[in-house]
Amino acid sequence: MGVIQRIKKPTTRKGKKVLLSKEPKAIEGPKQCIFLQARNPSEQARNVLKDMYNLKKPDAAYLSRKNDFVPFEDASVIEKLCYKKEAALFGVSSHSKKRPHNIILGRTFNYNILDMIELGADKFKAMSEFHNMKVLAGTKPCLLFNGPAWDLNQDLKRLKSLFTDFFYREKVETIRLQGLEHVLSFTSTQDGTIYVRSYRILLKKSGQRTPRIELEEIGPSIDFKLRRTKLASDDLYKEACKVPRELKPLPKKNISTDAFGTKMGRVHMGRQDINRLQTRKMKGLKKSAEEKKQMLLKKKMAKKEAKKAQPVN
């Protein structure tokens, strides 16, 4: 059941500004995320959620209060909290005998549940157990998806899209080499295990212009096991991924590409007078004195003929 949205009319200038900021935008910024606790979360599940919150900061909120609900049975609590916090992503931790150390990741569309994927944290090593330097909060990570299963399995394909949404920040036009500091690696195996690793990029001297790159693990280190999924229908997913008309590239006329990738263009030009074209000036093409005299005589003859051709009143 979706959240009932009331029609609000602003009474002040500040209220109008707040409502305008909540409206959908053509170019979205980083998506907000909330992390909350469900029924009987274990210590390991809570720590996994805290480390994911540390990776997502500052575009996240961590709610430590326990909520007595099961997301796959009743998701109204998540929808209400997402509407209240203006969040499009959520993470829920829970624990039971049947599903120990349970982590549920999902996202909403128009404040209704779009996707939910349940993962089990089999092995976990927190960031605090790695005694080394960490990256700054808010650093945009480089995402690596290893293994062919990310493109072959439909559930993993949607999970890849969900991870990309979780750690996506602002759009970057250019990349600076020194700006690449953080790597998140997601490796999928045939038995359904997903290895999540976090590394810090170290640029070492190589004796050349391009530095030698080393990776230092900074945590967290999580082994996820894919469990239940609740995915949106193809029509709803297509509507959620719809690109606004103003962001679609306009087709360029008279431009085509051949089989080899060469761009071909057709240029339309008017009729040109070759005698008036400005060419490169050089002494070899300079007119002689006799040619100049002939040109002057031709101009005088043309003027006389023009005067004779004029009608007499």
TrEMBL record:
Keyword Nucleus appears in the UniProt entry: yes
MF terms (GO), sorted A to Z: rRNA binding
The entry's keywords: Nucleus
Entry superkingdom: Eukaryota
Domain Brix positions: 31-235
Pfam family, one: Brix
Any one GO cellular component localisation term in the record: nucleolus
InterPro entries with a match to the protein in the record: Brix, Rpf2
One GO process term, biological-process aspect: ribosomal large subunit assembly
Compartment annotation: Nucleus, Nucleolus
Family annotation (PROSITE patterns): BRIX
PANTHER family: BRIX DOMAIN CONTAINING PROTEIN, RIBOSOME PRODUCTION FACTOR 2 HOMOLOG
Family: Belongs to the RPF2 family.
Name of protein: Ribosome production factor 2 homolog
Protein source organism: Danaus chrysippus
